[in-house]
Design a protein that fits this description.
Layout lengths: L6 H12 L6 E2 L4 E3 L6 H8 L2 H4 L10 H16 L3 E7 L5 E11 L4 E8 L8 H17 L3 E6 L4 H10 L2 E12 L2 E11 H15 L1
Parallel strand pairs: 5-6
Antiparallel strand pairs: 1-2, 2-3, 3-4, 4-5, 6-8, 7-8
Helix pairs in contact: 2-4, 5-6
Length: 208
């Protein structure tokens, strides 16, 4: 018989179980919402782009059917509370990227963060805004203690973004995933809830 969860861990499990669909998170320029069937073309444009997939753990999509299948999987995974894979939507509610919380571990109060943004929107701070919304929800609403992230060590832009968010590089997992016959390392980064709160406080003070 499994041991009962501690009160904070049970609270995380209860938050996840009580979700009525995807949490809707609104920022100044982007919103995080659940993906819809009519996002298929935009999702294919995102994950079919070799620039986006250069450091991904799978090759680019080859057809819009793959995007439709992924939307169905995202919705099924959400229903089972395996992950929350939001669409990053712009001011016109068009999908321009994705932001994901996955590998939920209520027992140890950990979760992992992932994201992707279409190249047409790189360099505008939108990925940082989207990730910040997800981190706020993970820390303030769900109550996670630690957020993990893993990147290809050659992905300098993603490392810079994560470091700006307060993540620290904690190590490298050697030859941890294949894309076709190419094997790559994985750089492991971590952010504590206390780190994120200090990061927000510093940003708010700097903005005054």
């Amino acid at each position: 018989m499994p041991l009962p969860l501690s009160p904070p861990s049970q609270a995380i499990a209860d938050v996840l179980a009580a979700l009525d669909g995807f949490p809707l998170l609104q920022g100044p320029r982007v919103r995080l919402r659940g993906p819809r069937e009519d996002d298929d073309a935009a999702l294919f444009a995102l994950f079919g782009d070799a620039r986006v997939m250069r450091y991904w753990s799978r090759p680019p999509m080859q057809s819009i059917d793959e995007a439709r299948e992924q939307i169905a999987r995202i919705q099924a995974d959400m229903a089972e509370r395996r992950l929350i894979n939001w669409a990053i939507a712009d001011e016109n509610d068009a999908l321009v990227g994705t932001c994901t919380l996955f590998r939920f571990d209520p027992t140890h109060r950990r979760v992992e963060l992932g994201y992707a943004l279409h190249p047409d929107h790189w360099g505008r701070g939108l990925a940082r805004e989207a990730a910040s919304l997800a981190l706020d929800w993970a820390v303030d609403v769900a109550g996670f203690h630690r957020i993990d992230a893993g990147i290809d060590p050659d992905n300098l832009a993603s490392r810079a973004l994560l470091h700006r968010l307060g993540f620290l590089t904690e190590g490298v997992q050697r030859e941890s995933f294949f894309v076709g016959e190419r094997v790559t390392d994985s750089e492991l980064l971590g952010l504590l809830a206390s780190d994120w709160r200090r990061q927000r406080e510093a940003a708010a003070a700097a903005a005054r």
